[in-house]
Every structure is written in structure tokens, then in C-alpha cells.
Write a structure and sequence with these properties.
Layout (H helix, E strand, L loop, with lengths): L5 E7 L5 E5 L12 H8 L11 H5 L1 H8 L12 H14 L1
Antiparallel strand pairs: 1-2
The protein binds zinc ion (ZN) (2 copies).
Length: 94
């Protein structure tokens, strides 16, 4: 079993190789988060990006990527963001 998997963070180092970081527990539904991050992201109205570590939040490439995570978006049913969007739509109908 391969214990050391790495994901491409989308950043390129000056010498041409891409920075990578360990992905010990990838989410099966997206390519930006770990499963644990998405699990938390679904329960948060702010989504996955809000739950990143300070270091990752400070990294714009990571922030941009994770803030677009489909797993915690308002379009995905079962997420807190989705429940909130539905609630708002419901109120607008009345
Ligand atoms: Zn995910
Ligand atoms: Zn995510």
C-alpha cells in the first residue's frame, strides 16, 4: 500500500518542478481537499476553505482552489451552504 501520496497544489517552483503536499486521505469527490476537510466543509456555511490551517489560508493558490471545492458548495445538496440557500429561497417565495 502506498502510504505517501501527494497532490499537486498547482504551484510551480522557480526551478520548474511543482510543489506538492501530502494527501494522506484524499476526498473522493474533489481534487482539492482531504476527506476530513470536506466532511467539515459540508457542515460549515463557509465551506472547506474556511477550515484550512492558517498557513494554507495564507497561500492564495491553496485558498483559491479550496474555496471552489464542489463538496461544500451551495449547489451540492446536504451541505450547510445548500441548506442555507434553500432556506433563503424559501423565504423569498413568501
Ligand atoms: Zn471534497
Ligand atoms: Zn472540500
Amino acid at each position: 500500500m502506498d502510504m505517501t501520496r501527494w497532490i499537486d497544489t498547482g504551484m510551480d517552483a522557480p526551478d520548474g518542478h511543482a510543489w506538492r503536499r501530502p494527501a494522506p486521505d484524499d476526498c473522493p469527490d474533489c481534487d482539492c481537499c482531504t476527506a476530513a476537510l470536506c466532511e467539515g466543509g459540508r457542515k460549515s456555511v463557509f465551506g472547506c476553505a474556511f477550515l484550512l490551517s492558517q498557513a494554507d489560508k495564507a497561500d492564495k493558490a491553496i485558498w483559491d482552489r479550496v474555496s471552489k471545492c464542489p463538496c461544500s458548495s451551495a449547489e451540492k445538496s446536504g451541505t450547510m451552504a445548500h441548506a442555507l440557500a434553500e432556506h433563503r429561497a424559501e423565504q423569498e417565495k413568501v
